[in-house]
Amino acid sequence: MHYKKQDIAAMDKSTRIITMNSASGIKPGNLIGSINKNGNTNVAIFSSVVHLGSDPALFGFVMRPTGEVPRHTYDNIIDTGTYTINHIHPSFVKNAHYTSGKFDESISEFESCGLTEEFIADFEAPFVAESKFKLGMKYRETIEIPLNGTKLIVGEVEHLIVPNDLDKSINLETLNGVGISGLNSYYSLKKIAEYPYVRLNEVPDFGHLKV
């Protein structure tokens, strides 16, 4: 099937959201933990976390327009300057999914969705105790995207918490990482190959792949 721009625009809202959200393929599933100045914690599921650089270690995530409905994660990050990024695993994927509900600011998704807050010394934002791979982030900047009113939130890694036996290649299959497609479909990850760093004199002769 071939959908043109006008065909996509004519889709019902739910179909368009799911289709366009799935079009980029499977994305990483993460829970972002935050806290406001009154000590109310928040945790919410995101599928838009992206690596922006390693020196300094930067990650970004996309925040939907903040004017339509309250965005507690964004407000908390701006208030305190800290937040956490926590990988999702199959053992609590259902709990993670339900953090997307529009809870009141006074209600913690940690408690409502059966997740456990975890704090470390000298860092304000809560981690997800159930997660095996987590980042403590310092807020750096917001990049506005005028085309649709979204924002790219950029943060720098201040803490990296991983299992003691984690190898340097970061095998996400071993870690039981979870991927997301669309709004509500979750996938397990399986490592299928590993190749060396590419040097031009070592590129194989592939010929033409059959379609």
3D shape: globular
Q: Helix fraction?
A: 10-25%
Tally of helical segments: 5
Beta-strand content estimate: 25-35%
Q: Largest sheet, if any?
A: 7 strands, antiparallel
What is the element string, with H for helices and E for strands? HHEEEEEHEHHEEEEEE
Structural class designation: alpha+beta
- The low-pLDDT segments are none
What integer value in Å does the Rg equal?
19 Å
The span between the termini is 17 Å
Quick tags:
211 residues
Describe the SSE topology.
Layout: H1 5-10, H2 13-22, E1 27-28, E2 30-35, E3 41-46, E4 50-54, E5 57-63, H3 72-80, E6 82-87, H4 93-97, H5 109-112, E7 117-118, E8 127-128, E9 134-145, E10 150-161, E11 178-181, E12 185-188
Antiparallel strand pairs: 1-11, 2-3, 2-6, 4-5, 5-10, 6-9, 7-8, 9-10, 11-12
